[in-house]
Amino acid sequence: MWDHVSDQGMYKTEICNKWLEVGWCSYGSRCQFAHGMEELRYVLRHPRYKTELCRMVAAGGKCSYAHRCHFRHTLTKEEKAKHFPEATDGC
Ligand SMILES: [Zn+2]
Ligand SMILES: [Zn+2]
Question: From CA 12, how far away is CA 30, in angstroms rounded?
Answer without folding.
Answer: 10
